[in-house]
Amino acid sequence: MTSTEKKKYVKYELTYKQKQKLLRLSKKLNIHPEELLYNIEIFFEEFSNFKDEEIWEKLLTFFNIRLLDDKIKQRADDIVDIKKKTKLQKELLSEYEDDYLTIVELGKSLETLTKKGVK
Amino acid sequence: MSSKKKYRLLIPDVSFNKFEDVEDIIDHLIDFYPYLQMVSETNNTDLKNLDKELEKLSTEYNELCQVYGKLMQEYGVYNFQGSELFTRNTITGLKLGLLMNKLQRVRRIWGDQFTLDYEAAREIIQKFADRYLMKKEIEE
User: Fold this and answer.
1) Which of A8, A56, A68 is nearest residue B13 as measured by Cβ atoms?
2) For chain A, which residues make up each domain, given as ranges?
3) Cβ separation A62–B85 shorter than 8 A
4) Which of A58, A92, B15, B104 has the most CB atoms less than 10 A away?
C-alpha cells in the first residue's frame, strides 16, 4: 500500500438487532462472527473499486435473484416431499378403514358370543 | 461468546460515503451473506438484464408457491381424515378391550364350549391394541 493510496476507514458498530442476526448466522453457518465481519469488510473493499453509480441497486437485485433461485429449489423439494406425504396418508386412510371394518366385525362376533355365554 | 461483546466493521470511507443509510446496507449484507462471495466472481455482463431475470424468477416462484399451497391443502384434508379414522379406531379398539375382558371371563366359566377361535381372536385384538391404543406409530 503506497502512502498516496492510503485509504481512510470509518468505524461502524453493529446495532443490537444486527448483532443478533450476526450471531444467528454464525451459529447456522458455523463460522466465527469475526470471520463473517471480515468477509463483509472485504465486500466493502471490493465495493469501493466499483465506479458504476447504480452499483448498489444492481447488487441488491443480484442478491435477490440468488435468493429467489435458492427459494425455488427449496420449494421444488417441498413439493416432492408433500406429494410423498400425501401418498402415504392416502394409504394409511384405506388401512384405517380396513382395520375399522375388521374391528367392528370382531366386536360383533364377540358380543353375540358373550350374550350366548351369559345366558 | 459474551453478549456484551461489541462487533465493529471497518469500512473504507469511499464506500461509506456512497451510502445514505449505512445501517440499512449492513442489514442487507448480513441477510445476503451467503451470496457476498459471488460478487467477486461476477463481471459486469452478469449485472445486465437483472430486472428481467428477477421478474422471470418471481413469476416462477409464485407459481411454485401456488402449486405447493394446493398440495398442502390436499394433504391437510387427508391428514385430518386420517386423524379422525385413527381416533375412531382407538375408541372402537377400547370397546374391543372391554369385550376381550368379557370373553376371557365367559371362557373361564364355559370352558372350551366356544365355536370361536379364542387364540385367533386374541391375536387380532392384540394387533389393534398395539396399533391404536399405544402411542401413534411414526408415519414413515
Assistant:
1) A8
2) 13-49, 53-119
3) no
4) B15
**Contacting residues of B for A60, CB less than 8 Å apart:** 28
SS3 A13: strand
Dihedral (CA of B114, B120, B126, B129) sign: negative
Contacts of A85 in chain B (CB under 8 A): 75
Nearest to A79 by CA among B65, B2, B47: B65
State whether A93 and B65 contact (CB < 8 Å).
no
Burial grade of A12 (CB within 10 A; 0-12, 13-18, 19 or more): buried
Residue type, B83: S
Please indicate whether, in this complex, the C-beta atoms of A113 and B65 are within 8 angstroms of each other.
no
What is residue A114's predicted lDDT score, i.e. its pLDDT? Answer: 59
Q: Could you read off the pLDDT of B9-54 as tens digits, one per residue?
A: 988 887 777 788 889 999 999 999 999 888 777 766 667 788 888 9
Closest to B121 (Cα-Cα) out of A108, A35, A87, A67: A108
